[in-house]
Structures are given as C-alpha cells and as structure tokens.
From TrEMBL:
The organism of origin for this protein: Gleimia europaea ACS-120-V-Col10b
Keyword vocabulary terms for this entry: 4Fe-4S, Cytoplasm, Iron, Iron-sulfur, Metal-binding, S-adenosyl-L-methionine, Transferase, tRNA processing
Function: Catalyzes the methylthiolation of N6-(dimethylallyl)adenosine (i(6)A), leading to the formation of 2-methylthio-N6-(dimethylallyl)adenosine (ms(2)i(6)A) at position 37 in tRNAs that read codons beginning with uridine.
GO molecular function, one term: 4 iron, 4 sulfur cluster binding
Chain residues that bind [4Fe-4S] cluster: C155, C159, C162
Quaternary data: Monomer.
Originating gene: miaB
Identification of the protein by name: tRNA-2-methylthio-N(6)-dimethylallyladenosine synthase
Length: 484
C-alpha cells in the first residue's frame, strides 16, 4: 500500500514539473551519505505498523539535518501513516522538516511544498477522512510490467494490536467500473501483471452493499485482454468465502498464490487480538484452497509474544504452522503501538521470552520452507522476468523473476541470449528448476542443455521502447484507458 502511495506522490511531483534527481547529473553529484540523493525535494513516506518505523524516520531526518543546513533551499516532506499519527510533533522533533501530510491528503503535496516555500515555515496539513482516492491521482509507476491497483482503502476491523484503522480510516471501496478502467489503462501501458490492493480485499463491496463483489471483481479483472497475471493482498480469514476460492480456481490469470494472515494459532490469543475467526476456520480455509488449487503457495503473518500469550498458546501456533505447510511466513515480535488496546494490556511478554519463541518459530518455518522448495527440483516453472536481479545475478550471468506462485527464481542465460536484447524485463521464460534453496529457486536448465523458452510480451516490448526513448520512461499515467 505504501509503495502504491509513493508512486502517486512521484506522479504528482512530476506532473508539477519536477524530475527524478538521478536524471540530473549535476544535482546527483552533490549527494551525501545522508541519503538525500542531491535532490531539491526529499519525500519520506512512513509506516506506523511497528515501533522501528518511528526510530528509522527520525534517524533519517537527523542525517538530513546537516544537508539542510548546507542547502537551506532543499525541502523535506514527511507523509504516510506516521505523519498521520504524529502530526505537528514531527516538526517539533525535527524543526527542519518543511511539509507534513497524512494518508488522506496525498493530493495536496505539491501545494504544501509551495506554501512552505512561500511562507518560510513548515506546512502541516492532516485530513481526518479521505478527500481524493489515491488511485485517481497521477502515477509514476516504477515497473513497466507490474502494477498496483487499489480496490479499497481503510479497514473496518478492530484488531487490538493494529493502528491501521485509526490512521487509514473506515473502509471505502472503489466502484468496479473504476477499478477495471485503471486495470485496462495499466495494461495498455504495458503491464502484464496487476496486484489488487486493500487492507481487507475480501470484504470488498461492503460499502456499496454487494455480497460476493470481490469474487466477481477477480473474474472481471481476469478477463481483461492482455493481462497475464492477477494477484491480490491481503484477505482476512474471517471474511474469506468459498466464492473467492472458486473464482481463483476458475480464472486462469489469477495466480495460485495466497497470503492468509494467521497471527496466532491459539483461539484464546485470537480472541484477545479481536480476530473474528478461530483456528478451525483458518485451517478449513487452507484445506479448501488446496483442494481447489493443489499447487497454491500460501504465505502468512504471525505475531509472537502478544500480551498474555503463554507457552501453551505458542505451542498451538507451532502446531498450526506445522500442519499448514506455509511456503513462507512473515514473523514478528509483538510491537506495542500507542493508541491500540493491546498496548495497555497487562501480562506483556518479556522480550527474552518473545525472542526465544520467535527463534523457535523461524527455525520451524525454515525447515518447512526448505522441504517445500525441494519438491520443485526438476519441475517446469514460468517466470516473469524482473528488472532488478539478485545480488549475485550479474556475476553469474543470471536474471531473476517470479514464478506463477510468486516464488523468487534465478535463471542462468544460455549462450546467445542477452538480458535487455533477446530477453527483456516483462518477458516470460519457461525453464526447469535445477536447485531449490529455502527462499529461492534456481532454474539453470538453459545452460545445461535443457528447457529455456522465451515468451515475448507486450511489457518486454514497452521496456525496449523506453530504452530507445527516455521520454517514455518519464511518462506519468492518469489512469485513463487507451484506445487500441
């Protein structure tokens, strides 16, 4: 969601005539180790889900203070969830910040920068409710081949550990026609993959009173001509229904990957978290998904050390993880967020106990992930080639991308195939897996005399055209479909 918002911020600034600093060599040359990049404007888009985000923000702002003293005309803007939460306190702690704006008024960023410049004082503006839906704003998409499309903002759940509903507001859904128009627009610009975004995507339709709206939307998006892959994140187990499973199974372009947040395997802890499902329902969802989509890769989120969690509660989480066979899990130590009910609960779990449980959980999931990955050795995978590879790709003449189930795959290029020429970002490759590591697959079949089939795509062609015409790379999208 934050990446999606950042693309809108960049689109707004470029519409106002600003350009990325890396395209201006004389400006980029003055970059410092503070991370300013040599830019005239630095925008920090913040998160507030975990305490570490706040520490990082003020650490970064502290580094930028010296740059601001040396280049007083440089402007610093802070937006996103932490800005929504802290408001004027951002400027109180970092007086050299020029602009503070929240999650509900991204659209005013250029105006606030002008106001701060004119008044020579910080411009702080926080709205309490959404004024302009972010997806309707100009967009500078980072990727040619993949796009984020927001279907809703906000959340109606009241999880006791989560600050998001307070900062993003109640759920607001876009109309299906608007979403389809944006999907058609990004496909016309070259995207072959779209990820539908929402705090709780499977409750989509609640604000305009249509049950089953998300399943219908998946089918409709899946029919858009030229779109190869559809993904979505994140659903909530309490509202996840069989019609969504059916839509996933019956729509070929909806990918066999599902992120299903567990949070805890203990019904007692789930009750304290105010998560409106229980272990049996969660495991039942996974069973039905795998029955309908046998090759589905299921990932999850788990919080360790929620207030009041006992060793028995934690053992139940380990049992669910063992039974569920997640392909990977995002595991977190509980982080108290001011303003949430959980932050004031008694029986806060000591850090050393949390850390011990966390390490045991990670060890279990690493074993499961490794066992799951090993099953792919010798299998064929279809990989959407990414623009940014792994750290060792260049040295080993490899490229990287994502399989249909969203696993990271590294591929070695056979003789006669050059990245950026015969194979371009956004193209697809069919290859066979030759090695499986816990968090990635290696498909070197092309250099071993085996399968290596390139499937050119419209996205690859657009990437190629952008290399020949740099002006195309700087084009800002207004989310309007093109006639073809």
């Amino acid at each position: 969601m934050n990446v999606h918002d950042s693309e809108r911020m960049a689109g707004l600034l470029e519409t106002e005539g600003y350009v990325p600093v890396e395209t201006v060599p004389e400006a980029a040359a003055r970059a410092t180790e503070a991370g300013d990049g040599g830019a005239d404007i630095v925008v920090i888009n913040t998160c507030s889900v975990r305490e570490n985000a706040s520490n990082r923000l003020f650490g970064n702002l502290g580094q930028l203070a010296q740059v601001k003293r040396e280049r007083p005309d440089m402007q610093i803007a802070v937006g996103g969830c932490l800005a929504q939460q802290m408001r004027e306190k951002v400027v109180e702690r970092a007086p050299w910040v020029d602009v503070v704006f929240g999650t509900h008024n991204i659209d005013v960023l250029p105006a606030l920068l002008r106001r701060a410049e004119h008044n020579r004082k910080a411009a702080v503006e926080i709205e309490e409710s959404l004024k302009v839906f972010p997806s309707t704003l100009p967009t500078k998409r980072e990727s040619v081949y993949s796009a984020w499309v927001s279907i809703s903002v906000g959340c109606n759940n009241t999880c006791t550990f989560c600050i998001v509903p307070h900062l993003r507001g109640k759920e607001r859904d876009r109309r299906p026609g608007e979403i389809l128009a944006e999907v058609e627009a990004v496909v016309a610009q070259g995207a072959v993959e779209v990820t539908l975004l929402g705090q709780n995507v499977n409750s989509y339709g609640v604000s305009f009173g249509e049950r089953g709206a998300f399943a219908d939307l998946l089918r409709a998006v899946g029919r858009v001509e030229g779109l190869e892959r559809v993904r979505f994140t994140s659903p909530h187990p309490a509202a996840f229904s069989d019609d969504v499973i059916e839509a996933m199974a019956q729509t070929p372009t909806v990918m066999p990957s599902l992120h299903m947040p567990l949070q805890s395997g203990s019904d007692r802890v789930l009750r304290m978290m105010r998560r409106s499902y229980r272990r049996a329902k969660f495991e039942g969802i996974l069973e039905r998904v795998r029955e309908a989509i046998p090759d589905a890769a299921i990932t999850t989120d788990i919080i360790v050390g929620f207030p009041g969690e006992t060793e028995e509660d934690f053992q139940q989480t380990l049992e669910v993880v063992e039974n569920s066979r997640f392909s990977s899990a995002f595991t977190f130590l509980y982080s108290p967020r001011p303003g949430t009910p959980a932050a004031d609960m008694e029986d806060q779990v000591p850090h050393d106990v949390m850390q011990d449980r966390y390490e045991r959980l990670v060890a279990l999931q690493e074993r499961i992930t490794t066992e799951d990955s090993k099953k792919f050795e010798g299998r064929e995978v279809e990989v959407l080639i990414a623009e940014d590879g792994g750290r060792k790709d260049e040295a080993r003449n490899r490229v990287s991308g994502r399989a249909r189930d969203n696993r990271l795959v590294h591929l070695a290029l056979p003789d006669g195939v050059q990245y950026g020429r015969e194979l371009r970002p956004g193209d697809m490759v069919r290859a066979a897996v030759t090695h499986a590591a816990p968090h990635h697959l290696v498909a070197d079949s092309g250099v071993q005399g085996g399968l290596f089939e390139i499937i050119p795509t419209r996205a690859g062609q657009v990437w190629h055209e952008r290399q020949d015409n740099p002006d195309m790379a700087n084009r800002v999208s207004l989310g309007i479909p093109l006639l073809r």
